[in-house]
Amino acid sequence: MKKQLAYLCIIVSLLTAAFFYNGTTSADTPVVNNAEQTYQLAEKAMFYLRVLKSDGTASATGTGIILSPGGTAVTAYHVVKGAERMEGVMADGTVISPVKVTKYDELKDVAVLELPSPAAMKIKDNAYSYLQVRKNVVKHGETVFALGYPLKNTNIITEGIVNTPAAEINGRSRILTSAQIASGMSGGPLMDAHGQLAGVISGSLRTMNNIHLIINNDDLRSLLPAALK
């Protein structure tokens, strides 16, 4: 009787293992997000970026992306070129000031920003929400989402595909995407469907309708602190 019971336990264990194993583990299968889920992931990790004149009015606007809990952020360089004073406005209306440029590359169109400490800004849990930078390159046809601030207090998301992961544009390799981009979204995130930053919005391609330019992560990493690469 004991032997039969032992055999029965072994069989049940084997059947249970077979039932739960399907060739991959949940850890091996990346989560795939839709547009709504992607927006929720990115909303608190980006901000409306204002370049200010001496009278406090904006001379230029764009979008910034937070990449660390301490406040390291990035944007497109052309948004902040020549800026002396900048501030960020978060989705909840919190004004982040001052915002400083710590490193930039005009050819790559990347600027690294430093936000005030989260404690100074009274950010919840003393940490900014942030996005992780994707390590591997995007692929032809991959679904992506572009986010940014074409209007003050109005962040939007658009969906498209990667038209090509590498196009030679003005001496630089750029990702081309069909995700729609409007003025003010420059510096915003291009997100993949797994919730990671796939690139930084640079602008539009005038020679192709509805095809837009994205700074790739290799160019972005070349300016980031070692801890974020």
TrEMBL record:
<dbReference type="InterPro" id="IPR043504">
    <property type="entry name" value="Peptidase_S1_PA_chymotrypsin"/>
</dbReference>
<dbReference type="GO" id="GO:0006508">
    <property type="term" value="P:proteolysis"/>
</dbReference>
<keyword id="KW-0645">Protease</keyword>
<dbReference type="Pfam" id="PF13365">
    <property type="entry name" value="Trypsin_2"/>
</dbReference>
<dbReference type="InterPro" id="IPR001940">
    <property type="entry name" value="Peptidase_S1C"/>
</dbReference>
<keyword id="KW-0378">Hydrolase</keyword>
<keyword id="KW-0720">Serine protease</keyword>
<dbReference type="InterPro" id="IPR009003">
    <property type="entry name" value="Peptidase_S1_PA"/>
</dbReference>
<dbReference type="GO" id="GO:0004252">
    <property type="term" value="F:serine-type endopeptidase activity"/>
</dbReference>
<keyword id="KW-0732">Signal</keyword>
<feature type="signal peptide">
    <location>
        <begin position="1"/>
        <end position="27"/>
    </location>
</feature>
<protein>
    <submittedName>
        <fullName>Trypsin-like peptidase domain-containing protein</fullName>
    </submittedName>
</protein>
